[in-house]
């Protein structure tokens, strides 16, 4: 890519200047001499040198927004799954080759120092990674946007696989410091918990209510600059760290109570200690609610403070600020904003409510019942008494307004209530987020339809304009340019440098190249290159050799029953048996690649990991397989591993039970890099099949409607289906008998029993369709011209799945802010 800065007519060349800057950072900021600098020292020096290049634009971006009084966007998210930032930053600044050359002159390899940067893994999976893509796209589109979240001291756990079982180890991304962040000790807010509410008659219309918490801690800001493509605009990700009001209770310490003296510190700081390692499984703990309120309160105080400083009038808030809630995790913002407006700014309730709804909007990311947040009323009353009062009031006024519209249907009123009465009294955070927002969106067309029909059916009937769809996207800078520079080079050669500035439109121009043998050959050669890189990673980490001529068949994502890694594993077993039993068939060589973390408390998911490892060990050791099948489970899936795996995939597994995967985003990353998808009509796969063409994918299985129909009919016993499918029966039987677990033959008995008797996720029900789709894959692979044509067309037609497009839609439809593309 030739996006580098051109050299000035006099003075040192950009490479020389960058080199001098690196050396200066190494010496004066890191305190090291080139002769005794470790890789990490070099990394830090380069990161600091790169950072210098964005600080001016960062200031300028902020100054412009201030000057022009732009409306600001605030993205509130409990998760930002960022990964590494060095190449991201250099590449968006157009400094990647400059830095590479500067380092080469110092005898340092950029690739080596790139690897020592720890991943910022402040998220679990798709939801957190989406937030990171959105931050980059918002900067690229020139939106005045701030991300707000928590600066977890420990991100998502490190997965170690020991004897096939997942073990969780503490992740320590901050151990060597973090050159990207700026600590802002002066930006600090008090956050209260507990206590009571004091009523005071100050002569006004309403009594003045004041919350008097009995526990207060501080939120300290840490800012990370987020640089957009071509470096033009630089936004801020502001993460909060919890601190105690005092670091030490000196009196207690002096009295000899050395532990008691720091007890408050430990309690307060536990809030930003660690990311909740669960995705879509109930967390339920008080600490989680404390995290949610902590970051919401700090963020709202901060943005209200900024608003007042810029505009001086609280009433213009909806015109000057748009606050997006990333899932229900920040839904307490509805009550907190009301509290701020009513109790602190003394705005009348009705007006405050209008302002709140006009300012907030909410994105839903899952319909899974176990992931829909609700908090026991008793816990809310104890931790956030004033907020609980406010929630009751919102609820009461809402129900009153419905009755006033002559709506008396008891079931409807019950279903739209903020309080769930059935399973002990609980606050429904989804309903709170819905009522407090002017816009609610789903993350794919199918998911949005299902929101309207299921979880929010009644609220949707009352507010039919509120729900809209915003299909997810991914940033092409990271997920194409950075992870696949060779392919990007070919795209630029074919379509011109300016492709990089508007790939979502320009990629389509690639379509005619799909018919050119020469281009297809280049495309395939880049894939080979990526496959070799992945193969050497697997060789290094697992000691397993992979045949890069085989189909690389990849399923990488969180381990969850609905994502159906089990379906893929059963296919693996059935294929293994077929290769052994039908040796004369011309089997196409496959490498099955799995990776993903299981929530620590999700036993079934951990058992699936063990099964994958048991199957891999058995198959890889069996000489009768003749190299036709290899299975690997690569430990510790994270953003950096995804960056190696995704460009190396021939086949992308997107096989969730239809109706359960809200969108998926890895599906888009794989297609963008030219992998063909084997998938169900679920989430964004539906839109992918429309835009890419179902003939360039391998679509199979029940639709969401068919799944729903089967569930409703209670047809979950699959005994007859199993009996009717020799391959499925054979695979299940082998797993059940302990073929893959001779050390503990009963290990998978219950698992198989459940698949057969209670097939909630339609694994058995979809098996035959999946098997046949996999054979279509084999057939297509044997026609290389056709395969690579489809691959090129996948890339050419994936443009719409850019997060720039998604953010453009949020900007126009929800936030009402212009972008630099307007
Ligand atoms: C839920 C919970 C529940 C309690 C404990 C911690 C925790 C953490 C995260 C979540 C959110 C689960 C929702 C989620 O991650 N949804 C995913 O969002 C992606 C981006 O929209 C989407 O592509 C995936 O399909 C969807 O599963």
UniProtKB/TrEMBL annotation:
It comes from Pseudomonas tohonis. Phosphorylase is an important allosteric enzyme in carbohydrate metabolism. Enzymes from different sources differ in their regulatory mechanisms and in their natural substrates. However, all known phosphorylases share catalytic and structural properties. The modification N6-(pyridoxal phosphate)lysine is found at residue 669. The keyword Glycosyltransferase applies. This is Alpha-1,4 glucan phosphorylase. GO terms for molecular function: glycogen phosphorylase activity; pyridoxal phosphate binding. Pfam families: Phosphorylase. Belongs to the glycogen phosphorylase family. GO terms for biological process: glycogen catabolic process. Its EC number is 2.4.1.1. One of its GO terms (cellular component) is cytoplasm. NCBIfam families: P_ylase.
